[in-house]
Amino acid sequence: MSIKEDLKYAIGVDLGGTFVKAALVSDVGDIVFTNKLPIGSQASKDTILNTIEKIIQMAIDEANTSELDIIGIGLGTPGIVQDGVILGGSENLNGWENIDLSTYYNQKFGIPVLVDNDANLMGLGEFFYGAAKGCTDVVFLTIGTGIGGAIIANGELYGGYGNRGTELGHIVVEHNGPECNCGGKGCLELYSSTTALIKDYSERSGKDVKDLDGHYIIKKFNENEENAIKCLQEHTDYLGHGVASFINTFAPQKVVIGGGISDAGQFYIDMISKSAFTYMMPSCGSNTEIVGAKLGNNAGSLGAAALIFKAYNK
Ligand SMILES: [Zn+2]
After folding, report:
1. 150 CA → ligand 1 middle, Å
2. How far does residue 186's CA lie from ligand 1's centre (Å)?
């Protein structure tokens, strides 16, 4: 029997606001097939459901051709997910609420389907296969348009009662700060998301936000431009305050920083670490390391597959 025949495979589906991606993943974390289909911004609930079904079928066809044994389908989606049901909270997807995705796709494909929030699964991916492999207690943050996060506590994803918590971008860092679309004020993501960084740079430099992105500001930082330095100091200082709070609460072995901007370089992680280690309680963070994510755009699909392996590959 070949090694290949010993491996089990899962399909990891990662639903975003504009694309759905699927990967065929082995239980040691090798991606043997990936695909990506667009989801129009006006797509209806049925269109989204059908697009996911189509991409799963493509991965199954690939597995059948290669005679690979699929043990389940993991699915990551924006929003609040409880027991396989997307309850809501994914504003960019029309009608994406109160759908029992687990049952729906289980009936279509006849294999186990597990569903969780996309940021949770990115964190699970980094925990299983990436920057936090071998740890038991991890805080994961993804820095993008907003800030998403995941907590791994004692080797398990922790989502609070009913899996409704761990909205790590919505801890308060300025109690009378600007209003956040979550209903609160002064949330971390208003200060430390890529959106916030771009807005800050735009205000300081007079450049239009439409002409800016995170990479441009990093480039200017590396050229020692004063505005870019100030913006990144502010951005990482706020982020460090947030990370310090997470360290004080969870005492993680690793804090993993993901999202496009985390590719900026080690200096970015070092700036966050400097701030976090200044503000945390030293006893809480004595075993904590702050590191960049390793899996990039594949974190979500790898984490979705990991959800299946964790449950069914014992
Ligand atoms: Zn908020």
Report:
1. 16
2. 7
Kindly state the DSSP code that residue 106 receives in the 8-state scheme: H
Sheet-wide strand order for 85-88: 80-82, 85-88, 99-100
Distances 181 to 197, 232, 236 between C-alpha atoms, Å: 17, 24, 22
Give the pLDDT confidence of 95-144 residue by residue, as tens digits. Answer: 999 999 999 999 999 999 999 999 999 999 999 999 999 999 999 999 99
| Residues near ligand 1 ion, CB 5 Å cutoff | 170, 180, 182, 184, 187
Residue in this structure with the two tokens 């079928």, named with its chain if needed: 57
CA dihedral 252, 139, 241, 210 (to 10 degrees): 160
Separation of CA 168 and ligand 1 centre (Å): 9
Collect all residues with Cβ–Cβ distance below 8 Å to 68 and sequence separation of at least 6: 4, 7, 9, 24, 32, 62
Which residue has tokens 């310090």?
244
Cβ(127)–Cβ(134) below 8 Å: no
Residue 60: per-residue pLDDT:
97
Taking CA atoms, 33 is separated from 4, 63, 298, in Å, by 15, 9, 12
Half-sphere exposure of residue 185, counting CA atoms within 13 Å on the CB side? 5
Asked if residue 13 lies in contact with residue 78, where contact means CB atoms within 8 angstroms, the answer is no
Question: Please, what are the domains in the chain?
Answer: 3-123+298-312 (3.30.420.40), 134-293 (3.30.420.40)
pLDDT for res 103: 98
Among 7, 2, 39, 51, which residue's Cα sits nearest to residue 305? 7
Rounded CA-CA distance 195/174 in Å is: 17
Structure tokens at 181: 């679309």
pLDDT band at 4 (very low <50, low <70, confident <90, very high): low
Q: Which helix H or strand E contains 38, and what residues bound it?
A: strand 31-38
Return the residue matching tokens 């960084």: 197
Count the residues in the chain: 314
DSSP three-state, residue 99? strand
